[in-house]
Structures are given as C-alpha cells and as structure tokens.
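ZP: hey, is the zinc ion complex queued? I don't see it on the tracker
AM: it wasn't, my bad. submitting now with these inputs:
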Amino acid sequence: MATKKKTLEDITKHELVPEHIILSDKEKKDILKKYQLEQNQFPRILDTDPVCLHIGAKPGKILKITRKSHTANKAVSYRLVVESSK
Amino acid sequence: MERVNSITKKIGEIYFTLLSPNEIRKMSATKVITADTYDEDGFPIAMGLMDPRMGVIEPGLRCKTCGQRVGKDKCPGHFGHIDLAMPVIHVGHVKTIRDCLRSTCRDCGHLLLNDKQRDDFIDQIGQYAIEGRNINYLYKEIITTARKSDTCPHCGREVGKIELDKPTSFRENGKKLTPTEVREWLEKIRDEDLPLLEINRKSARPEWMVLTVLPVPPVTVRPSVTLQSGERSEDDLTHKLVDVIRINQRLQENRDAGAPQLIVEDLWELLQYHITTYLDNQTSGIPPARHRSGRPLKTLAQRLKGKEGRFRSNLSGKRVNFSARTVISPDPNLSINEIGVPHRIAEELTVPVRVTVHNIEWCKELIIAKYAPSSLEKDYVAGVNYVIKNAEGVKRRIKITDKNAEMISESLEIGSIIERQLMEGDLALFNRQPSLHRMSMMAHRIKVVPGKTFKFNVCVCPPYNADFDGDEMNLHIIQGEEAKAEAEILMKVQENILSPRFGGAIIGGIHDIISGCFLLTNKERKVPVAIASYLLGAVGYKGDITVCDDERIGRYVMGRDIFSTLLPKDMNMRFKSKTYQSLDSEEAFVIIKNGRLLQGTIDENSVGAFKGNILDRIIRDHGMQAGREFIDNVTRLGIAVATMFGFTTSIDDEDIPEQARLKVAEGLDKAMEKIKNLVKAYEDKELESLPGRSLEETLEMEIMRVTGRARDMAGEIAGEHLGLENSAVIMAKSGARGSMLNLSQMSGCVGQQAVRGERIHRGYKYRTLPHFKKGDLGASAKGFVASCYKKGLNPTEYFFHSMGGREGLVDTAVRTSRSGYMQRRLINALEDVKVEYDGTVRQAGGQVIQFIYGEDGIDPTRSLNGKAVDVDRIIADIKEEA
Ligand SMILES: [Mg+2]
Ligand SMILES: [Zn+2]
Ligand SMILES: [Zn+2]
C-alpha cells in the first residue's frame, strides 16, 4: 500500500499539473450512474502517481480532473485510482 | 434480405497451444513414409504424400478415412504425420527456446531464481493482470534476472552462456548443442516454473518446441493441379514435404547402418534446413528453397504473412459482387450528386426487388421490357437479369433470355426476387483508391449514359483526389433497403460537402468554373441580351432580370445580375475577392445585399472549394440541399460563360516585351555581380559571419538570399507586363489554376535549384559538373537557373533542374509509402473507437477515452474552421438588424 511521500515541492501548484479532486462516495456513485460505467471501464491512475501521493488518493477513489483545453477552455475528466504493483 | 439473429458475446480469453507429439499421432490418419505421390497409373500411393486417407481432391472419389466425397458431403481432409529420425528445432519458437535455456538449469531444470525472487515475480504477474498493464515487460525482466545468476541456486551447477546462431542452432559456452540435447534440457523444466516463462502449463510443454513428429497437412490444403498437357503439378508444400521425407529416410538408413558421425550430422542439418524452409521460407540466415524454375517456394508462413497472405487478403479483405470499375471522365452537366454509368455496365449490374402484390405487374412488365419491340427505339431500357424463385426453401436462380422471358414473366410469383438492371435514380457507392478519408467513398444517384467511362461533375474531384489522366474508379450497387437509407442520409455527395478535417467545404467550384465566374463579374461586365438569355437558360432561371440599354452595344444585362440569380434572397455579405486581395481600396470587396451582387469580382474566394465564402454561407444558412444546388448551378453557369465568351491560354500568354526581357537580364547580371562579390569577400576572408553560423554557412545563406531576390525581381518585372487581360494571369489571380510563380518562372527566371534545401553541391570532386572550375562557388556553378522556361534552359541548368525535380519525386515516393503504413497502424488502433449516444468516446469494451468528444462535444464538420461559434457573424447579424 502506497503512503504519502514527501515531495520536494508542492507539485499541484505547478502550471502543468491540472486540478485533481477526490470525489466523495456519493459523487462517485453519481458519476458511475451518469455514464453507466463499470469500474474497469474508467481511465486509471496509479496510487503511486505523484499527484495521488500528494493529495492522498487511495485505491478505489475517483479523481475529478479539470484540465485546460484548446477546444473547450476547461475540460473535466475522471480517473479511477488503482493499486500499483510495488 | 436475410437476417441472422445473433447474440452478442464477449470473448473472455484466447490462448494458443502447441501440438504434442502424441496429439499429432492421434489426429493422424496415416503415417507417411514414401516421398512418391502417384504410381504410373495415376493412382495415389498408400502411405505416400497423396494417400487418400488424408482426403481427396478429385470429385467423385471417396475419402478412405471418412468415406465422404469432395463435393456435396464435403470431406474436410485429414492430417497425416512423418516420424522424424532425429529431433529438429521449430524455427517459429527459437526465441522462446533460447529464453528457456538461458533462464533454467541444465542439470536440475529449475528456474535460475531463488525462492524469494520467484515468489515475488508470481505476485507481480497477478498484480499486472489486475492493473491491466502490459505484462511483456515483466516477462522480459524475469528472464534478465534469471540470466544474472552465475550458479544454479538449487543444485549449484555453473550457468553456461547460451547463444543462438541464427536461425536454428544453439551453443552453450561456445559448444554446439544438438537438437536432442536441447530437447532433453527442455524436458527437465518443471511444470510449476512454466507460467514465469510465459508458457501455459495446461496447453504446452517446452520440449514440444523441438519436433519429433511432423504433421502432414491434408491434401485439400495442398491440392495438385493437372495442366492442359495432362502433366500433374504439385503444390509447393507437397514439394517441400517430398524433400523432408527423402532426407528423413536417408538419415534413418545411415544412422541405422552405423554410418560415420560426420555423415549423420550433415544429413541431420539438411533435415533441419528442409523443415525450417517448410515452415518459413523467408528465414533470415538461410537461402530460400526454390522451385526448379528458380521461383522461391511459398511455404506455410508465406501463406499467412503480409498483404497477399491469408489474413489481409482473404479474411480482412474480400472480393465483392455487384461492383464495376472503369476509367473516369468529366461531365459538367451532371449534378454533383449524380454519376454517369455506361450502358454496358448498367445492363450487367443489378438491384434485387422482392415481388409483392403491389409491384407484381410492374415486375412482369420489366422482365419482358428488354424484348419488347418498343425498346429498340430507346437508348437504354432496364430489364431483368435473374429471377430467384423460392420453392420449398430451395433457391433457384433463373437467367432471363429472349427465349424464356415471356414464360417466366407469366409464371412470376409473389415472394420471388427479381434482379433488375440499373435504372436512373438508383443509389451506388463510388470510390477511388487510396481511400484515405471518408469522402473517398460517397453515394451517387445513377444516370445511365452512353460511352464507356464513369462520368461525374468536376467539383467532386478534390474529395476523391481524382483527375482524368487515366484514373479508374469503382462503383458498388446498393443491394438492400437498409443500406440504401443509410447511404442516402449519410453518404450522398451533398452530405459530404463539408469536410470533417477543417470544417469547411471540400467540394466547390474549380478551374473553368472559377474562370467563368471571373469573366462574368469582373470589371462591370455587360452581357448582350442574346448571350445573357443563353446563360440564364443554362442555370434554368425563370424570373425577372434588369435589362439595360446602351446606344453603342444595344440591350444588355449586367454580368453580376446574372450571377445574382443563383444567390438566396436573404444574403448579405462583404468580403475581399481573391483577385484583388492585395488591393487596399473599396473595389477589392465583394458586396452582396439582399441576394444581389452589388459589386466585386466572383472568384475562388466566393465559389471555390476550401475558401468559398458564398458557398460556405449558403450551406450554413440554407443547408446541404441548397449548397448542392448552388454548386450545380455555378458549374453550369461558369462553364456556359467560358463557352460563350471564349477562354483560352497558350504559349504567347507568357510573352513579355523586349525591353522587359532586357531589364530582367540586367537585374540578373546585377545579382550575379553581387554573388561574385560575396564569394570574393569570402575568399579574402573579409566576410563577416552571421551569429551562430560558420563562414561557409553565412556565404550560402547570403547567396540564397540574393538568388531568391533575383527571381522575385524577374517575376515582378514580368508581372508588370502580364495584366488581367491575359488568360494565364486570370487563372492565376482568380485561383482557377496555376500561380503567379508559375508564370514568372515561365517568362522571367526559373531561379535557384536546391537539393535538401541547399544549393546543389554534390557531383564531382570540388565541383558539381566538369563544365566548371574546381572550387567555383558562383551562382551558375551551384544550380542557379537564370533562364526562363519559355526561353529554355542551357545544358547545365537543365541538369541542375532535373536534380531538383528528382528530389521532389523521391520525396513523394518515400512519403506515400511511409504515410500509408502509418495510416494503417492508426486505423488498426482506432478502428473500434466511437462516439456513443451519451457523448463519450469509448473503445469496443466500453472503456472511456474521452468523457466528451474533443472535450467540447463539437462535430468539426459543423464547426467554423474548428471553432464552435462564429462570433463575428453573430455580431454582424445583430448590427444588421439594429
Ligand atoms: Mg491521375
Ligand atoms: Zn475424409
Ligand atoms: Zn540446477
């Protein structure tokens, strides 16, 4: 199980790192229902991803990611946190 | 149309297995021991390669294994087998064998990992599967880890260095391993270690990668053909199997007779060669086995691999019926939605029609229509080629001839299907290869025309990338109602005017259409009434038009008023024309108020594909149908104008006056002088280098600048004498065809030739051609062409020009093959990605790729050059209203 590691800088403040928010269980249920998705159909993110470590996202949670977009200014997407092998 | 009710099922997993020697023997119908095929009487020899127990190919004969024939009850063919005297390595598995040998112990067969390493890897394999990660890297890591140990952690044996000598021999510490030794080693590997070597222990044992028995494919897989001369010609696989059996026999005899080791080893190697080429005749490192004629044999791998192989040629791609192919040619009188199909093709291709109570009379008449006396007076009458009768579930196809037409027409029953010939208005898919985008295949309405070529409106050339220098295209007739509806709504040409690539029209006026519009509208063109009425007739206009009177030329109509008849009444626009795009005055603008062209020249910027403002606006405001009508009308009007006014170009369009020629020559002389000075400055080391450049680079850059400017200067001088009264200039400026650069190269100066973006410098030692002094850095020695095309190039200029030209040809040749392969890989990767009804983009398994297509959910086809909203337009419209 991955734990929060100390990173040198606050990486979430870097301009290339988009905003990641951990969804509550209720929000997660709503998203799964809205898109009629099984867990394995979600885009994934490893729990050892620097952002996950930083914000403390545990496997099974869904992250809401808001990116800058060329076409839509802001684009929202979701990723499921999965456990990494090491 | 028939419909198969199918249940969608998900494939859980697929796994590949190896055949064990036991399985091969078990499925074998016979052992094959003789290399001969047929005896003198032409009968297959028992236990030979054509043994009838492996199936039969001649119709009528019965298979000795299953008792069925080839034809109706269909014997599927049965495998045989050859017992090999000595084991042989399977080429297809050498890499796996190598990895197995490298990561296991020769004495005890254990993996060269200690228990902890092994357990860790097993855990990781499970974890990778859960995460859905690519497991190949892990398997590679297992092998590299195992290879690192110097001794076996289980029995302590020193680990040897295993090398693979391509294609099929192995060495341990430099000493050759025989296939027998390899097999013995592989036998020792424990079942429980196999998953770590990427082998499924339920389906394979590593020693099965070394063959002891060779399966012989059924005769149906390798049929022999009888030539006209009565001679039998065997399949390549049979030829190869003959070799295998012969050598196998000799090997057996020599070994049994106790022949010297050297001879046995030679024969063993030969057997290995024959079996290797039998499996794959393009194995690198060994010469391919050849036919007597010198042609390389097509063995097992060659049947499957590549473009002509089973997968790409027979499974992914298939041949189709109801299709035609011929040369294409243009026809401006056809709508962009139409296609002209020659009589001969229309009579061959058919559309199925089910006979019902409602159409039975019509069907009966259609069957005899071709043979009625009245049909002789018409150019083309559609008939019926076949009637498909459905009697008690058995289908019978009856060909209609002049003899049986009457009879079949009378006995026609409801429920039969008639295959009727093409009629005007049938839908067909039209295609030109390479089919690089979806507009390469569009639906057209059929018009039956005389001649032998497919005809279509020239405006549809760009999406197909077609021209008429001998191009051929394919036509597919739609066979079902469902397909017809789909094609009508999605694939018709008018639905594809806008390209999804850039959100603009890809179909629009080209060539003479643009020249015609230019002639009609440029410079307040006045058209005499007689000609005007012809032009209005061409577009079928039936309304009013303003006629003016002039003492000198009589009654006339303004050209722009004729063009206005094609515009919708609510159109208001203002944009710059292409012809006067560099002009900064009011005349450069095209102004349309309430559907009337008030001023300006109609050219590519109005009606052209890609950037036609009027065309774009009509499609956006009035839809595809209106857009299609506009393109059709512009085609007719443009061509009619060009025909009535006359429009021609010839070599004297590139004539410039003598004094202009002298001026060009003078300018070129000055440029040459400048280059000479630059070279001199460089040689005297007085040239100052540009920042970040060497002296040589600086000189080259400066010279390229001077030559570039010299060509521009020549173009400008020539351009001064080439005005809009010149047809070639009209075409270039209005965007119909050609460019001013083309013209200035024809009448001014061709300019610097380049290879790889540099002045030409390769050729002889220190010089490009023997006509120049060694080390000459001047303009003409390095590929500057001072002549113009019209005057002609001198021999050295011609040579340099060819060098530059060849680079272009090589580039396109290289680019097409490379981009073709790249596109193939892209298509294979994306083939089942689609936008679902909820706006998400998903893979076949439902995995989300984007939560909203393109992050904004905008269809680029309907966007304005990629943007969702045309803000300028909205502001203009609101201003208009206020
Ligand atoms: Mg061509
Ligand atoms: Zn059979
Ligand atoms: Zn050992």
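AM: back. Residues 25-35 of chain A form the longest helix (11 residues).
ZP: great, adding it to the tracker
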